[in-house]
Write the structure tokens for this entry.
Amino acid sequence: MPVFTPPSRDCPLCLRLVTFREESRRAHSDWHNAPVPSFGQLDAPLLIIGLAPGLNGANRTGRPFTGDYAGDLLYETLSHFGLAKGIYNRSADDGFTLVKCRVTNSVRCVPPANKPLPLEIKNCRNFLISEIAAMPNLKGILMLGRVAHESLLRTLDLKLSQFPFIHGKLHETTGPKGSLILADSYHCSRYNTNTGRLTPAMFRSVVGELIARIKV
């Protein structure tokens, strides 16, 4: 089984992100301010992929989707379906754990204005390739937003034209990992929920359909 090696704390691959990370370290020395490690076990059958760490969320706490509104909706939904244990309290030391589920991001370092550049997404893709290869029981992947969708398709060597991003769409794929079910959802950000683009019920529906298909 391949071994997943995450990025180092001082990963040098993206100059712009390195500069932004160093600025944040000077301004907030008590924050995580480094590539954010994935949350959950590698033997999980379900992988959830987001965009990138939020400046005041995961970049601060050191755990994906922890410390901002997107995490509130994501982890409440996972708890509803029995994919988490404990009480989520917006802190990496809250004792909250995932069950049969793993959460990561397309880009592991916080980008300025929460907008990674295409080269930064590409540079980080090798970590996603390595991570997926090291997940022996993987059956389904939930992609939060178009960036995660397109990055994953490129990771799996799938054509974007054959698998368009459509909220609520489940894609059946076959590749080196065998059969996988991929699900699209709008990102569970405050912007999307405030504008009504994504409601908690819509998000719960996508997650519920995916885990039913992969029989988690």
The mean pLDDT is 96. The domain at 15-214 is CATH 3.40.470.10 (Uracil-DNA Glycosylase, subunit E). Residues 118-133 form the longest helix (16 residues).
